[in-house]
């Protein structure tokens, strides 16, 4: 009787995903979803973030703030979580790009992104709610949104996931 109850309890834990928070499961998830660097086409700089904002920085410094995890969403698209700060990239109604605590919701209009207009290895990063693409401003070394959708030919809007 005890073995049967123990087996049922173990099965419940496995099917509800509670076991997914073990160190082994976390390592397996990290292996399936490796860190990436997001490099800008015009900038030749990397999308970076600290604990308060996002910015473009030189890729060569090897900073953990240059590393991002592309977290797939159940309904398509992804969130971009910074390895250094643990924060997620977001965009507000004013099309300002910033970092904030990652949402646990399935849909979050500020934090949901999708790749668009692939051309070889370069892509646009489109904000799911607004349809705007993330762009790099070479003068300010800052990131910002662009109204009017994505134009792949605009160099400031091309990014490389590597």
Automatic annotation (TrEMBL):
SUPFAM superfamilies tied to this protein: Ricin B-like lectins
Transmembrane segment boundaries: none
Keywords: Lectin, Signal
Domain Ricin B lectin: 42-159
One MF term in the entry's GO annotations: carbohydrate binding
Stored InterPro entries: Ricin_B-like_lectins, Ricin_B_lectin
Signal peptide: 1-25
Isomerase keyword on record: no
Listed name of the protein: Ricin-type beta-trefoil lectin domain-containing protein
Gene source species: Cryptosporangium aurantiacum
UniProt lineage: Bacteria, Bacillati, Actinomycetota, Actinomycetes, Cryptosporangiales
